[in-house]
Amino acid sequence: MTLDEIIALPGDPAATRVVVAMSGGVDSSVVAGLLKRGGYDVIGVTLQLYDHGEAAHRKGACCAGQDIYDARTVAETLGIPHYVLDYESRFREEVIERFAQSYASGITPIPCVDCNRTVKFRDLLATAEDLGAAVLATGHYVSSRALPGGGRALYRAAETARDQSYFLYATTKTQLDMLRFPLGHMKKADVRALALELGLPVADKPDSQDICFVPGGDYARIVERLRPEAGEAGDIVHLDGRVLGRHRGVMHYTIGQRKGLGISTPEPLFVISIDAARREVKVGPREALAVRALEVTDVNWLGADPFEVACAAGLDLHVKVRSTRAPVPARLGRDGAGIPVVLLAQGEEGVAPGQACVFYDGEGDGARLLGGGTILRSLAMSAPAPARVA
């Protein structure tokens, strides 16, 4: 697929303004380089998401001080305008505060979804429009294609190990019309080769590993500062009612966790549930993690038919309940109270409230993203199957 086919806009590329979200990493830098080489009118935009002075000392995190510097250097190398936008306050409110509150409530958040849904695709798209851009391009590994009847849809990337569609399920149909993802059909090795070919100074820069505002993965320090109650001690309780020990705050635990429980037992135990109000972490054997159905909320639907129709018909699809897991067969429905339910064909383990359940029309590379929602709660394999509204 050519670059012009990906951008999919009529007219002379030189008259087409494209804003590129530049994080300072190799992926978004290559996107900017490809578009510049393709003759487009490219503007680079980098978001300052938290205090620059602190960020400058953080390594291995996107949007930090070093990354802002790297993005600016790449823009100078390419000869394109580059702007750094102060999104610190909105990022704190929309992402960091929600992140801390989730852990304090005993649920496991996905801050990258919140960031993409609000700061990056809602606010940055508005900025791109203000700059007169026809599209906003990013370095995400996901594909966007035009639909025969109009509009666009998202599809899993060609390199499934790099696919980021799970984190983009909340993207709306309106936003998709203006978004482009030039790397969706490429492999990472080819992207790095292109970075060298384009003479980009970040060609060998390591990939970011941590959540951008959590240097070194120590999220507990941030949560405890914003929500001190999440660090209050409580009981670790077995499913059979036995109190096995004390924990050091619900923020340190998530569903399916085995290590770091601080208790000694003959058999391996896993976190089964978290009751933040009672400051109680419940543990049990691995088989207690098995889930047969999920209730989901805040659904964003990108399928061709309305979501109500898909639920009523009991649409068969594939879902991902963790970013690192492959899609598994499932069926959409509703329970007796009308809450959207996902029935899992074979069950899943370690499903945590607050995580995303993302819908696809298949399981392989190129499968279409149908949307997704936030996991509200799960039903154990031993629970009765929820009714489906037909």
Short structural summary:
This protein has 10 helices and 17 strands. By secondary structure, it is an alpha/beta fold. It has 3 domains: 3-216, 3-Layer(aba) Sandwich (Rossmann fold), CATH 3.40.50; 232-288, SH3 type barrels; 290-380, Elongation Factor Tu (Ef-tu), domain 3 (Beta Barrel), CATH 2.40.30.10.
End-to-end Cα distance, whole Å, is 41 Å
Estimated structural class: alpha/beta
CATH class of the largest domain: Alpha Beta
How does the major sheet shape up? Answer: 6 strands, antiparallel, barrel
The succession of helices and strands, N to C, reads HEHEHHEHHEEEHEHHEEEEEHEEEEE
**Strand-residue proportion:** 25-35%
Task: Give the proportion of residues in helices.
Answer: 25-40%
Strand order of the largest sheet: 12-15-14-13-16-17
- The name of the CATH architecture of the largest domain is 3-Layer(aba) Sandwich
Radius of gyration: 22 Å
Number of domains: 3
Protein architecture, described:
The protein is of the alpha/beta class and 390 residues long. It has three domains: 3-216, HUPs (Rossmann fold, 3-Layer(aba) Sandwich), CATH 3.40.50.620; 232-288, SH3 type barrels, CATH 2.30.30.280; 290-380, Translation factors (Elongation Factor Tu (Ef-tu), domain 3), CATH 2.40.30. The protein has ten helices and 17 strands. Strands 12-15-14-13-16-17 form a six-stranded antiparallel beta barrel. A five-stranded parallel β-sheet has the order 3-2-1-4-7, with helices on both faces. A four-stranded mixed β-sheet has the order 9-8-11-10, with no helix packed on it.
